[in-house]
Amino acid sequence: MKEKYPLMQIVDGSGKLTSDSYENMITEEKVKDFYYHMFRLRTYDQKGKALQRQGRIGTYVPFEGQEAAQVGSALALEKDDWMFPTYRDHGAALAFGGDMVRLYLYWNGRVEGAVPSPERNIVPAAVPIATQLPHAAGAAMAETYKGTKNAAIAYFGDGATSEGDFHEGINIASVFKAPVVFFNQNNGYAISVPIEKQMNSETIAQKAVAYGIPGVRVDGMDIFAVHTAVTDAFDRARRGEGPTLIEAVVTRFGPHTTADDPTKYRDQEAVEKTRDEIDPILRLERLMKNLDMYDEAWIKETEQKIVDEVEAAVEEMEKFTPADPAVMFDHVFAEAPWPVQEQKEKLLGRSGS
Amino acid sequence: MKEKYPLMQIVDGSGKLTSDSYENMITEEKVKDFYYHMFRLRTYDQKGKALQRQGRIGTYVPFEGQEAAQVGSALALEKDDWMFPTYRDHGAALAFGGDMVRLYLYWNGRVEGAVPSPERNIVPAAVPIATQLPHAAGAAMAETYKGTKNAAIAYFGDGATSEGDFHEGINIASVFKAPVVFFNQNNGYAISVPIEKQMNSETIAQKAVAYGIPGVRVDGMDIFAVHTAVTDAFDRARRGEGPTLIEAVVTRFGPHTTADDPTKYRDQEAVEKTRDEIDPILRLERLMKNLDMYDEAWIKETEQKIVDEVEAAVEEMEKFTPADPAVMFDHVFAEAPWPVQEQKEKLLGRSGS
Amino acid sequence: MVLVNDSKQAEAGQQVQTMNLIQAITDGMRTMLAEDDRVLVLGEDVGVNGGVFRATEGLLDEFGEHRVIDTPLSEAGFTGAAVGMALNGLKPIVEIQFLGFVYPAYEQIATHVTRMRSRTLSHFTLPMVIRAPFGAGVGAPEIHSDSIEALFTHMPGIKVVCPSTAYDAKGLLTAAVEDPDPVLFLEPMRLYRGKREDVPTEKYTVPIGKGKRIREGEDVSVFAWGAMVPVAEKAAEEMAKENISCDVIDLRTLYPLDKDIISDSVQKTGRAVIVHEAQETGGVSSEVTSVINDTSFLYLKAPIQRVTGFDVPVPFFAIEHDYLPNPNRVKDAIKEAVNF
Amino acid sequence: MVLVNDSKQAEAGQQVQTMNLIQAITDGMRTMLAEDDRVLVLGEDVGVNGGVFRATEGLLDEFGEHRVIDTPLSEAGFTGAAVGMALNGLKPIVEIQFLGFVYPAYEQIATHVTRMRSRTLSHFTLPMVIRAPFGAGVGAPEIHSDSIEALFTHMPGIKVVCPSTAYDAKGLLTAAVEDPDPVLFLEPMRLYRGKREDVPTEKYTVPIGKGKRIREGEDVSVFAWGAMVPVAEKAAEEMAKENISCDVIDLRTLYPLDKDIISDSVQKTGRAVIVHEAQETGGVSSEVTSVINDTSFLYLKAPIQRVTGFDVPVPFFAIEHDYLPNPNRVKDAIKEAVNF
Ligand SMILES: Cc1ncc(C[n+]2csc(CCOP(=O)(O)OP(=O)(O)O)c2C)c(N)n1
Ligand SMILES: Cc1ncc(C[n+]2csc(CCOP(=O)(O)OP(=O)(O)O)c2C)c(N)n1
Ligand SMILES: [Mg+2]
Ligand SMILES: [Mg+2]
After folding, report:
1. Could you tell me the CA-to-CA distances from D334 to C291, D238, D266 in Å, in that order?
2. Is the pTM of this model over 0.95?
3. What ipTM was reported for this prediction?
4. Which residues 220-239 on chain A approach chain D with CB closer than 8 angstroms?
């Protein structure tokens, strides 16, 4: 099957184009845009881990290593498209226009962190695995119903493919030719469970055959490959040709979450060793150098801007209005029914803990 | 995809072998065995419909047209194998050794009708669609665990392929190489919903690709094709090579159930017209004639035996000990906990309705 | 302009048509589909076939396949898809073919349908209705007869309604479609083709959260909903002959319960009997009992009586009537309350 | 040979080891895996990783991958597979990583796990255990903190147990594995690494269906389970200083409830407070209230008090402690009962 679903690559590990035909697609502007977003995600992510270690936020879900997959896909969306991320895709949300302060707040156990910025259709991360796939199908069907050209993208991992909702969501989308992109980040693990124990199929892309839709397998560490594949899938969707399943093969450099200890189930040192070679940001740097687009001054300045942005976001997050117990009662229904109303009065009229 | 999954046929509509190489597999004994079972199912089924019309049983689920698929598959089981049928597969259960009286009782709303005969591992029909597929995977895994050569078969329809449990059951079976056969009867409809609205894939067999297992598509009106495909799949399973997905393409001659009106959603007359041509029993008769195996005396005698058997079964069903409300309390747990015990005493110590 | 009318039947001067309960449901859907093109109907066999009970009969022809959608056999999938549609501005009415087949959609309902508003502080809301026929007594196969309203009244974020008359059915359905939040609309199968009554052809709503007194009495309060309402009424009629007068209340909404009608009635009678067909342990009767305990403790003259299904799976239909509460069981409970 | 021991802790002469609650659960699984090779453990991350909470730590090395099985991420799939295994003579212990992720397996549990025995008149039985950590208070993300025991106590065909101590955890788990029917084994996450106590290294069982009095008192009965037991105890201690003595009972089994310990206690005190962290409406507290109503109506001196979570989705962890009952809320309820 790996032959039938070859790993699409545009920029190889050494930062070279896999075919000259790609040359015209590589503009300095695009390269810089990709670099900017990946570095921004990396900085946000590193800070997230640090904040957790320092006890300034709760358990955090790092995505280090998956920046190319998340940025490359997110930048393929148009402003009115719909994004359905998982708990690991706050990187993609950030790249699409999610609010950094809120994206930190979420990890501090604040519901305010799940509230999307009004300019973007970013649905809060689905915690129950694979449940967002049917949502993406439905949101996309609604766009068709309204006669727009907007589309949706659903993010999910390799483990998610074992859930019924993965299957039901894609099947329904395929039947109604819904304009949706099913974007899988295959990082080889569902917490500790390796993909060989998750499925008997050699690839995830081949699962598209079950739905009579195209399946594409790309090198998820190659931002150009990801961006191209996802853009093509969105084009198909907007043309009314239905959903596409994309498998982006990536490496999760760190633990599943800051509460996870990867050394229990994999050789973490070996993973660390591969980093220099496969890190998507380093690969992009190599490409820049190979194409004489490496602009050190711009990089320094950009990185500084980002570091400042992140510091400011953390500060704002920590200064955010304190959590108010009232919010748990005020948004269950448009109007609180009497049990909720009475319970609220009882609690807030009370000493509490 | 239809090219990749050609419809396997051994005996064509005119009762001729599709290849001489099959000649040696057609013995008179086998032909008569197949005829016996198919005619027996047909007689049972016709009687079931009549009983429902006469109000002697409740809603009945006919399987007319699917006899070759049910007999051909059921006769591929060894005595200690496991059968997981749906509400439409009492034909398969009957052919495997299920008790005819109980199989009528079931349609009379009697739980006794769901109790399997002790000699056969026939699990009562799964009513919630597709829920039996994971069961079959687990029962098969248990056989592997015990080190036997027994295997399991799960029956399901085309509509069932849209449920999450279809996907989860096959995925788990594929990961653990469970000795199980997933036998789909594709009759083209889920009640009123045609397969084109059920899935976007051209075939059901191709869904096997998602699990890295073999997918086979057979003419479900050709009992030799079905029997061969299912037997091969059981052999694979017993050899430890894991599950197989088989799509048997069939026609449901009648309504979904006796409560269904097929004229609301399909041209029922057109279906009736095709019967002479595609009826699996007639096809077998043509084969018998083509091979000079048509033994009229034997047929008459056999059919008479079967008619008598069915009449006797109906009589026994109607003479069966009257329904006892106590059974609803006595089998919830090994020992009735106090609420069940108290409720039982209260009801049975009472006038009731 | 919506006419709010909570009387038992249509009012003088209204355009009416005689309908049974299921026809009123169809009429309610038709009314809302015609009024608001954000409203869609989707589910298994709801289109060409008009539903296995004919609840959506004619809607496909009238509104087309973009409004009345035959889905794959995929409860989690199409309930999840409806979540996506509602997120995106539509108002889906999802039909679950039988309530006993809602289980595969349970995760979608418990983790998304009911939580989208709270987890986004009302940024995203899900105005959607989930319709499902339920209950035993019609000779249906296993699972088809489950009565599991209590699995939803304990799930914050969804309202649960259950009409027992044609008039309430249309009025509660239109109210459910107009409600800004998810509503589970339970349809008592056994009453689908029961009593016919005049139903206004125009649109009207019956308020969610309000029970209805269907018989005035002094000695004991009898609470019921869905298919148990006629059973309670029958028992009350017969008790009247024995000079015991029952205050019979059709709760109609199971979340939020109508606390006022419950406490008013019990504070008047001092006795309560609760009738439902779901299993006894953990049934909605326990919650009604708690409401009575919280509001009317000092008024109670006798223990609250429960007449319910038993703690067993709904049995095969040959004995389902032994499982179901009947007027005799209700009368026995009434007598126990009165003679305590 | 099974030693049945229902005292609070190990008895003199027993081989013991000090363990916290989760270690006792691991020890219980190890004991049963060693004793009976029909027993298997399966679920997500239970093998190589030893479970996300380390509940199955070491079991893979000790018993091998045919006994301790890492499954795909597929709750319906592996719960359904466990049904097939149990049908076929094995005794699976299924781990649901968090109770909030049992929803996808809900159909398998509601239609098969709980009904196989009744629908085959005991021809097929399913001796299986479903383990799941549950409850709020540990700063977990959404859904991970759901407390939905009432969704199973209303489901005929499964027993529901919930230990609050290490001793009960091992004893109830061994009892659950030996039970001929399905048992849902709820593990209060918040107590996993709490109080350590002596736990016998040998096998023993704690009977399913029996509550436990953990503090003797005269003025008011306080019922709790799981992580609410220490909360109730704390409140009782503080009330003692105000000369109000509480009869504190850890129900331990939620289906079937221990009717005798409930009625004995309430008939002694005449007052009851029920504490649980699940949402109030439809929680198990309502069923306890019904049991008191049925058994002890004439003994009640005050309305039964409920101290529970609210009718809202368990909130994000920044405010989860405002959602959870705490000693102060329990004390207020006790005072209301006493001063009524
Ligand atoms: C229904 C459900 N079951 C279990 C979990 C617990 N859980 C959280 S993440 C995870 C692994 C997911 O793996 P994958 O889909 O590969 O995504 P990744 O975390 O690798 O990005 C599990 C089992 C969950 N969130 N939802
Ligand atoms: C989970 C679930 N949803 C809905 C139903 C109602 N129902 C019974 S049979 C059926 C159609 C099944 O179609 P298919 O799988 O093709 O099998 P067939 O009836 O054609 O043999 C439906 C929707 C059910 N039994 N279970
Ligand atoms: Mg992964
Ligand atoms: Mg079919």
Report:
1. 19, 11, 13
2. yes
3. 0.97
4. none
